[in-house]
Amino acid sequence: MCRVNLSISWLNSRAAQTPRLLLCLLLLAVLSGCGYGFAGNDSTVLGSGKATLKLTGIEQPTLYPWVGYTLRSAMRDEITARNIAAWVDGGSADYNMHLRVESFTIRSSVKSTTDATLLYDGTVVITAIVHNGSDNIENWRSTVTYSNTFETDAEDKAASQLFTQAVRRLADNMRRTF
User: Fold this and answer.
1) Do 126 and 102 meet the contact criterion of CB atoms below 8 Å apart?
2) Residue 6: pLDDT band by 50, 70, 90 thresholds?
3) CB atoms within 10 A of CB 84
4) Which helix (H) or strand (E) holds 72?
5) Which residues contact 155 (CB under 8 A, 6 or more apart)?
6) pTM for this one?
7) Contact 174, 44 (CB under 8 A)
């Protein structure tokens, strides 16, 4: 029994962890030489992340008044968290963004025996357009379509998750500069 305890304590010692640490560092060095790196340092369609971005408008032909707020806050959170640009609410900015909801559907797909909705199916198509803040020339445009099934009994929760995921796809597209 004493022998087992010694071998376990040896495995947890610094001498056993050093080769694993060196192997991990070597793997990171090899991968970084192949073009892999952390996405937070990559350039975006707006440059290196130092530019300012302002949301100038949201077109949304839905009957849900909260859609504009959800889109705005989700886009602000994604832009800020991914270090794509510095978000500004007023004044002038290096870039202006306009969001347009092209289509939006949410439907009850599964109901219980008491006619309560258990699952919602939703689809949204959103276009984001970015213009240069000084000359208003279009710099970038992307349209994303996102569909999913949501296990919730609240339609507004399902729709909010749908819009948030679509905005994440738009932010992903902002990293694609090729």
Assistant:
1) yes
2) very low
3) 24
4) helix 67-81
5) 106, 108, 117, 120
6) 0.72
7) yes
